[in-house]
Records
---
Amino acid sequence: MIKGDPIYITRPLLPDLQSVNKRLNEVWESKWLTNNGPQQSKLEEELKQYLNVENLSLFNNGTLALLLGLRALKLTGEVITTPFTFPATVQALDWNNLTPVFCDIDPNTLTLDAAKIEPLITEKTTAILGVHTFGNACDVEQIQEIANKYKLKVIYDGAHTFGTKVDSQPIGNFGDMTMFSFHATKLFNTVEGGALTFKEGALSEKLNLLKNFGIANPDEVVLSGLNAKLNEIQSVIGLEVLKLVESERQKRHEIKRTYEQNLKDIPGINVLTKLEGNSSSYQYFVIQIDEEKYGNSRDWLHEKLKEYKVFTRKYFYPLCSDFQWYDHLESARKENLTQAHKAVTQVLAMPYYGELQIESVEKICKVIRESR
Ligand SMILES: *Cc1c(COP(=O)(O)O)cnc(C)c1O
């Protein structure tokens, strides 16, 4: 492996260039590059089918989708969320002047610990924002029950869960709204892009306004929006990448199986994103390193693998509750977030993409096993 090419954590799923060109010809002929074009409409329809949802709206990235989704729901005050996520989740709250209230995570799924939500609810709370971390679904039933009891909205960051299910229900159908990211590093990509799926069909119009400066018609601007539209070129990429997702999932299935078989009896190595279970997102393959049992730390392994030109990622790291602008929040204090603080020192996302050779996976596992 030292002599071979470097192995990166991810490689984008790239569509067939000839098919892309064919479709781009259509765009060139139409001279319609953005603003609700035919390619975008087609992608929207195909994604509704693929994700098995009734309502879906496309955006130029997942972050703006979430930011504007929260805006469309007219949230105020405080939103209960997880510290163990990508910065975009909490920054979408910041930009809506919403205060995050950090809730600790479940040590098994690393998603919001539903049992710890209720004590954090105040009269200012308007929503719960969960993250389906690494494709492990939140406790959607329990969260919905709490939300119903206190009349709160439920929003999910589903950036890692393209096409996954919970108890055979499409994941985009839980809560009031779910965000998907179509960034180049995600299983399905439009280079940059994202979507919201949502329960209430009436939100469709609102979201269309929010992503296009609030322009209702040539004579009227009815609300303060942003520019967050997915353009025709991105949509073309999406239409072609979507054709490849199923075969990519199958390749990743084999890679996952190989990782699991080769890691299963190494003391202190726990696979967080197992094949079985209700949602295999095939987005990441993440392990958790128990320093005491493994004999070395996560950071040590991260560095060790680099010597073999294997690039892993401490993901998520750092913890969002440690951002300096949350210093004043009581919920951000370390003593309230024991599990999150533990997870952030233990998780490591491994190289994971369809073209990764099975042989490379075996070698990576060998390094993990033998260099401890
Ligand atoms: C990728 C990601 C985002 C951000 O999505 P973009 O499309 O890059 O804006 C948000 N949340 C999580 C959990 C992500 O992994």
Note: The mean pLDDT is 95.
---
Amino acid sequence: MSKSERSIETNAVHGAGFIKSLTGAVSTPIYQSATFKHRELGVSTGYDYSRLSNPTRDELEKTVALLEGGKDALAFASGMTAVSNLFAIFKPGDHIVISDDIYGGTYRYIEEVLKEYGIAADYVDTTDLQAVKAAIKANTKTIFIETPSNPLMKVTDISAVSEISKEWGLLTIVDNTFLTPYLQRPLDLGADIVVHSGTKFLGGHNDTLAGFIVAKDDKIIERLKRIQKTLGGVLAPFDSWLILRGIKTLAIRMDKQESNTEAIAKWLKTHKKVEAVYYPGFEDYPGHEIMKKQSSGFGAMLSFTVDSEDTVKRILKEVKLVSFAESLGGVETLITYPFVQTHGDVPEEVKESGGITKRLLRLSVGIEKAEDLISDLQQALG
Ligand SMILES: *Cc1c(COP(=O)(O)O)cnc(C)c1O
């Protein structure tokens, strides 16, 4: 059975296994070496210098490529390093169509860096395919989507957007951080490139930053490898090992986090101080059917609005088991206040009009016992 025929649960545990095939090491060794010796001129082990490639990082890159169904992957020092390296394939005069409910750091990168370099972007509600088509211009190069989106959990149809891209000769890029390849494989659905913050569910332990780009086209991979080698924002050997170790338990973590999320979403919906729960697992949620078609689960993220800013303050002060902290995807449950944290640099009117209000909270659900999490939220909500 080839690796690509095996289930993702199995591949997550065993990884690409290329070092194991050479040395037998069950746990990938950490090749903590900046440089590699050559035997003579023109004779190399394949390794020269760790900015170009490193065996531990190679094992991780090959593993992530295997999980996403890509030809190859590149590992970076953070999700934002992956995003910024990816955008380096565009040039002044190019135009990007991007989801309006996007990760705050990606928004800041476009607004503060790309626009200064002459790359234009329009933010559209990519759940609306007519709006996506209407935003395409003669110089558009890509449609960049996040689904479900952050923090409003809006669901974009990946296949439908990929069809539009193909028609216009554009690249479809999907930020797959929220679901990971265990629950959603954008490349199988027609996307060209997947980008990740590996800091989140892939790493899964809130202990290290990482980022990935996965692609299926050789030319794109070659271009990105040149950019990675030139900009140098690579993932260190030890951090590569931490992410490899995290990925081994991806499937069981995601299963537990998902079932906890469903339980909390249902409970929140019944609370008198909770006005709305953004959770795509609800049958009447917009995008629920699309998500059922393109994903094998609803993930472990949800957002909710409460009756007042006082309630927000109370919850953030009173939670004991749940940590009031930025980030997501780890085994520990975290609560985030998008208005001032993840989306702090998005202008107020943009946030408010999009639904990121001062009464919105985001929850990243961990692997604790669901009942314990609910009772903590219960006492914090009051
Ligand atoms: C966190 C995050 C990023 C940025 O990743 P870092 O590892 O924090 O640099 C990008 N996209 C999404 C959806 C994220 O959640």
Note: The chain has two domains: 3-248, 251-381.
